[in-house]
Structures are given as structure tokens and as C-alpha cells.
Amino acid sequence: AARRLGLRIPDDISVTGLDDLALATALDPELTTVHLDAELFGERGMHALLAVLEGREPHGGDIPVHLVLRGSTAPPRAPRD
């Protein structure tokens, strides 16, 4: 869609995805993503669902993520005068 609008990635706009799928490296430029452990995410979701079904409060907690930098993002440009 960005290219159809005449925008260049990452020169004009940065693009970031979520989940670090294999498809991210098949794109041009390769897609910067946030890596999320899908198995842990599913496990935590299942525990939360079971807790709710049993009338218990689900446990909270963060799921670790990390940014996988690739070619679809760039630092912001300097402001124009």
C-alpha cells in the first residue's frame, strides 16, 4: 500500500510487524518485527482461560519480547528548517 502511494520504505516511512514470522525475511526490504514466543503466549492464554472457566482470577505477568531490526525501519529524519 505504501508503494502504491509512492512512499519508499524505509526512506519515507518505517514499517514494523509483530510475531517475527518467516515471511518477514521474504519481503523487500525485510520487515522489522517484534519477536514473541508463540508457544509461551499460547500457554499463558490457555492458563488464563482455564482460570476464568474455573472462576479464578488469571495470573498476570509479562511475556518477554524483543525487537528484530531489519531493513523496513530507519531512524527519524532530522527536522526541516
Overall strand count: 3
Strands of the largest sheet, in order across it? 1-2-3
The secondary-structure class comes to alpha+beta
Distance between the termini: 29 Å
Tell me the Rg in angstroms. 18 Å
Order of helices and strands: EEHE
In percent, how much strand structure appears in the residues?
5-15%
Which spans have pLDDT < 50 for at least 5 consecutive residues?
none
For this entry, give a set of tags.
81 residues; alpha+beta; three-stranded mixed β-sheet; 1 helix; 20% helix; 15% strand; elongated
Give a verbal description of the structure.
The protein is α+β, with helices and mostly antiparallel strands. The protein has a domain at 16-68. It is built from 1 helix and 3 strands, in the order E-E-H-E. It has one helix spanning 38-53, and strands spanning 16-18, 32-36, 65-68. It has a 3-stranded mixed β-sheet with strand order 1-2-3. The protein is elongated, with a radius of gyration of 18 Å.
List the helices and strands and how they pair.
Elements: E1 16-18, E2 32-36, H1 38-53, E3 65-68
Parallel strand pairs: 1-2
Antiparallel strand pairs: 2-3
